[in-house]
Write a structure and sequence with these properties.
about 400 residues, Helix Hairpins, 3 domains, rod-shaped, OB fold (Dihydrolipoamide Acetyltransferase, E2P), Elongation Factor Tu (Ef-tu), domain 3, alpha+beta
């Protein structure tokens, strides 16, 4: 009984303590909440936002670092234009006319009427040979011709009256004709004393001076060369003959001559002559063009560059020559897309043209944009900062030495 009573008392006490225990815990919680101020929560939120921002900023920096900056490059549009199909050769100029002035009669040179190296016109007086002997012979021939004409007139009157024989009249007629011929010959010899230029051209260095005795057996007194127009002599390789024969006689066949240093404007003329056989040993065919030379800029025997134009290519596709690059896979260009990224495009290049342009037979289309400079830093898919390309003025028709052969598809 005593033990049961103690247990009951213990449960009663324990039950009472279980009802009183929540009150001190709630009180302690309220005390803890009262210890953390509101600004601490705000500070925690700010710190959390800042940490999140830094994490996103770091990731964005990593993404930006992974994408390289756009590469600077110059670009140009693909254009279409009529251009020539040609062969480039080396040639020399030759005078259109060459005259070696010689004496036709014997005599002493009395006067020289030109300056060495000057331009002369047809009919200009060059030398005067002593004309006195020939003037005397001419006067004698004229006097004899006048006498024979009087005799012939008298014989005609007598013949009309039938008082002379026919033979006498015939002799008088023959003498009149012979003296007339002698007069004309004497006049020619007299005229030969005044040596004149037979052509328009530039005179060379004289070979004789005043006081020299000259005659038909004497060498050339001076040489005159016609320089306008002028010939250009060149050769065509045997391998190019099939292409040349294809266009020979066509309306677009021309010969263009210019100097390697670009000091003169290229002269365009016509094909004057092409040989009918290949030269043994050299494997070439001789050809000659004729072109205007009004300013005498081209001189005989001067080395020149010759562009033998065979035809005109209509609406050819052109890009700046620097745009064409060469890799192990062959020629290519970088084509710029709308988003300024580049695409590697294989192409088939043709001939270089005036203005530092190159014909593209296949691979690009008109109005596409290609990279001209800066290709070394690019790869397919690279992004560029495009800048317009400013072409340079070429010194020669093709801006360089020029290509030897015509385009491959021909």
């Amino acid at each position: 009984m005593k033990l049961h009573t103690e247990l009951s008392d213990f449960k009663t006490l324990n039950h009472g303590s279980s009802h009183r225990s929540p009150q001190p815990q709630a009180k302690r919680a309220r005390t803890a909440n009262q210890r953390i101020p509101k600004w601490a929560y705000l500070l925690f939120i700010l710190l959390a936002g800042f940490v999140t921002y830094r994490i996103f900023q770091h990731r964005a920096t990593e993404v930006t670092a992974a994408q390289p900056a756009p590469r600077p490059a110059t670009v140009a549009k693909v254009i279409t234009k009529d251009v020539p199909l040609y062969l480039d050769e080396i040639g020399t100029c030759a005078a259109y006319e060459t005259v070696q002035v010689q004496a036709q009669v014997s005599g002493v040179i009395m006067e020289r009427h030109f300056q060495d190296g000057s331009d002369v016109k047809k009919g200009d007086l060059l030398f005067t040979i002593d004309p006195r002997p020939y003037k005397a012979a001419l006067d004698q021939a004229k006097a004899q011709a006048a006498l024979d004409q009087v005799t012939l007139k008298r014989q005609e009157d007598l013949r009309a009256r039938k008082v002379i024989a026919q033979q006498d009249y015939d002799i008088a007629l023959a003498n009149a004709q012979k003296s007339q011929a002698a007069t004309e010959a004497a006049q020619v010899n007299y005229d030969y004393c005044f040596i004149k230029s037979p052509i328009i051209g530039r005179i060379g260095l004289r070979n004789v001076d005043v006081g020299n005795l000259v005659g038909p057996s004497t060498g050339a007194l001076v040489t005159i060369q016609g320089l306008d127009p002028i010939y250009t002599d060149f050769t065509v390789a045997e391998n190019d003959l099939p292409l040349v024969r294809k266009y020979l006689g066509g309306p677009n066949v021309k010969v263009e001559t210019y100097l390697a240093d670009g000091s003169i404007t290229p002269r365009t003329g016509d094909l004057y002559f092409i040989d009918n056989a290949v030269q043994p040993g050299s494997g070439t065919v001789k050809a000659r063009g004729v072109m205007p030379n009004p300013d005498r800029a081209l001189w005989p025997s001067e080395f020149v560059r010759v562009r033998f134009i065979l035809d005109t290519l209509k609406d050819a596709t052109l890009v700046p020559s620097q745009a064409v690059q060469v890799s192990q896979s062959g020629p290519f260009v970088f084509v710029v897309k709308a988003d300024n990224t580049v695409e590697l495009r294989p192409v088939t290049p043709g001939q270089r043209q005036q203005g530092d342009l190159t014909v593209i037979e296949s691979g690009v289309k008109p109005d596409e944009t290609v990279v001209v400079t800066g290709q070394l830093a690019l790869a397919p898919g690279s992004k560029i900062a495009p800048q317009p390309y400013a072409p340079k003025t070429p010194a020669t028709p093709d801006g360089a030495a020029g290509s030897k052969s015509a385009m491959s598809n021909e």
